[in-house]
Structure formats: structure tokens, C-alpha cells
Amino acid sequence: MNIEKEITTNVQADTPSLLNKKVIEIKDLKKRFDNVPVLTGLSLHLFENENLVILGKSGSGKSVLIKCIVRLLNPDHGTIDVLGKNVNELKDSDLAELRKKIGFLFQSGALYDSMTIKENLEFPLKRIKKNLSQKEIDEKIEEALENVGLSDTLYKMPSDLSGGMRKRASLARTVVLDPEIMLYDEPTTGLDPVTSDEISDLINEVQEKYNTSSIIITHDIACARAIADRVIMLNKGKVYQEGTIGEFEESSDELIQSFFRTKKLASHLTK
Questions:
Q1: Which terminus of the chain has fewer CB atoms gathered within 10 Å of its CB, N or C?
Q2: Residues 6+ apart with CB under 8 A from 252
Q3: Whether domain 3-101+179-246 has CATH 3.90.226.10
Q4: 271 vs 91: CA distance, rounded Å
């Protein structure tokens, strides 16, 4: 367990005024597919400079939620405010500007296989930060790769990297754009326990170095323990429980207990 993060979590839980600025606020969000409800009235908020972990069984609406946040999906009902903007009411040009302030790290990482790692980071910089000189671009790329421990991979291809290194490179490509908000969808999926721990540490380092506010969707309880300032569990498309990771682990609620027992067993079997 990350003791420093646990102490921080406890302090924040006792002094909510430290986290009084909401960068995301969602109210009564609903979404269905082919008349099957996925989100059923979900309401939550993300505070500035917070790591919010979202847990839940498959099908509880976790990934649909973050796609609605950036309007990759349109909700059927409800409001989503991001950095003071009502996402559902934004024109396409305004939505594009808002998305520049949001970083994504999805399961696949989605690096361009035909580009070197440097070119992978350079491509979004040249497209979005058009006022930067080549020298400034090079400096930002080198800094981002150094921050994720990949300084020596500039001219390597994605195929030359391990799964964990590719995930790091994907994270570097995201933070090189200086996002205010990070959305992580299962950032440790498919990684061995040691590499998963490294990615969890990186999420904390990104929060500290870039002052990001983050939503992290994960099934990895070890990851949740290491990074969470606050935890929300979804069930049947809405918030079922909210609290610190310690409160979740001490909960007598049957659903929460069964979820944590399953994850603890899975973690034990992979070691």
C-alpha cells in the first residue's frame, strides 16, 4: 500500500474544504443501448487535483461514463459540466477546444505503429500546440519521456517496447499536451503485478508534476489502493457507494465485500 497516498486520503476525507473546486460535475446521467439501460441516473463530481477511482463490475457503466464526459457518446438524459462547460450544449468547435484540456489513457494505448516514439509524441503537439517551435517541441517530448522513465526510447518503434513501456509511452504522449484532466480506462489491464505497480506510481507522479485531476476506471484493487484519493463504486448504472479505499475495505456491505474478496483472490493467484 502507498502509505503516503493513504495519509493524504485520510487528510482529504477529514477536510473537504481542501478539495472544494469541482472540475467535473455530473447529474442524473442516463444512457441506454437498444432499450437496455446502462447508466440509470448517475451523479458524481471530480475535485481539482484529485485521483478519483471508479470501481464496478463489467457492465456497470464505467467506460460509458467517461465516453459521455468527452461526448464520444451522447447521453439520453442528464448534465455533464467539465471545467465550467456544459458538454452536451457545446458546439463542435468548442468541444474540440475542451478536449484539448483532457488527456486519455485507454486500455490499448493506441500508439501509431509506423512512427517512432518521438514521432508519436510530436504528432499531437504539432497538431494542437501550433505556436511551439521545433526546439520547444523537442524539449517537451524529452521532458515527458523523462517523466515516465523512457528517455532512451526516442527513436525506438512501439514494437521494440514491452507492454508496460508502451503504456508509459502512451501516457507520455498524453501528458506532453499539459492536460488539466486525465481519464484512465483500466490503465493496468494486461500487465504483470510489478509493471502494474509502476504504472500506479506513474499516475501519482503525473498528478503531482502536472497538477491533473483524474478519473481512473480500474478492476485492479492494488492500483486503487496506491492512487485513490476517493473511491466510487457503480452498480446497475449509478453510484452505489463512495468513500476512501480504507472505508471500502472495512465495509460490511455484502456487494462491496464480494467485490474485494474476488479481487484479492485474483491478485493472489497472479503472484
A1: C
A2: none
A3: no
A4: 49
Work out the angle between the directed axes of helices 163-175 and 134-147 (0-180°, nearest 10). 130
Give the neighbor-by-neighbor strand order of the sheet with 85-86.
36-47, 22-33, 77-82, 85-86
Three cell numbers, residue 212: 491533473
Longest pairwise C-alpha distance within the chain: 57
CA–CA distance, 153 with 161 (Å, rounded to integer): 9
Cα–Cα distance, 238 to 216 (Å, whole number): 16
> Which of helix, strand or coil describes residue 237?
coil
39-53, 146-160, 245-259: least confidently modelled range = 245-259
The helix (H) or strand (E) run that includes residue 102 is strand 102-105
Which pTM does this prediction carry? 0.86
